[in-house]
DNA sequence: CGCTGTCAATGGATTACATCA
DNA sequence: TATGATGTAATCCATTGACAG
């Protein structure tokens, strides 16, 4: 019974941008059903933990797949348990909260549990009698059939409740603790694989974003260059000048040193010898066109 | 024969829940 | 009745050790 813990804090990462149609969610929960139906990368990344911790009947494990015969191990047939083990496990099936179900948990608690500790001791005796009495930890590899059956079960449910664990253990001729450990390690492997896939995906996202950023920067530079050349073009077409208008006759006054080509001094619209010329500017306010450019110094001042 | 990868197993930590004072 | 302390069960995680290639 895994409770919402530190992994359920909702640590998520969302990436969305127009050209990469991904919405990435890294929900770092303990995963992970490895079945294609739950593959998270087809539509983003969403790792979800299947809920299989209810007390539903372990009938799934009574299917034909679970009736497959388990084979013997190399050297040691670890599928053969002391007969008392099976009897005690059968007794435990009826109550998920019985002593049998407490095979899981802290080692000290497991060992302090009488029945299960006896199971472990009986199993250890069986091994040691067949071996040379070495008490060190032996590698007891599961058979291919056992692994296949466990794998099939894992595809359906990545976690086991006590009853299912016991049923599967009985089916495979393993100790419940072994089934538990197998699922635990299997979840770890799945999570590791998923992490690798996530990293690869994020790496690709990063590369795409870097490329996009590079492209946008280049585009900005091009637009700035285009804007600068356009401004300079218009400034050449209409050189800056300052004209004055007579307030009384409302004619443009002749500058004392008129620019060569601005206004014809003989124009009837030009006022002569008026005292209070009002300057006006043909150019719009400078700030509305270009700001902070060296060419601004060429702009006529109001 | 040493190296490396795989995998079962271990020990510690964490969490939720139940019980009790 | 509310609350904090304690125990229990389940799980995760890092690591260990055996073993095969």
From TrEMBL:
This is Homeobox-leucine zipper protein HAT2. SMART domains: HALZ (SM00340), HOX (SM00389). The keyword Disulfide bond does not apply. It comes from the Eukaryota. Residues 48-60, 94-104 have a biased composition (Low complexity). The keyword Coiled coil applies. Belongs to the HD-ZIP homeobox family. Class II subfamily. Residues 135-194 bind DNA. Residues 192-226 form a coiled coil. InterPro entries: HD, HD-ZIP_Homeobox_LZ_Class_II, HD-ZIP_N, Homeobox_CS, Homeodomain-like_sf, HTH_motif, Leu_zip_homeo. It is found in: Nucleus. One of its GO terms (molecular function) is DNA-binding transcription factor activity, RNA polymerase II-specific. Keywords: Coiled coil, DNA-binding, Homeobox, Nucleus, Transcription, Transcription regulation. Residues 133-193 form the Homeobox domain.
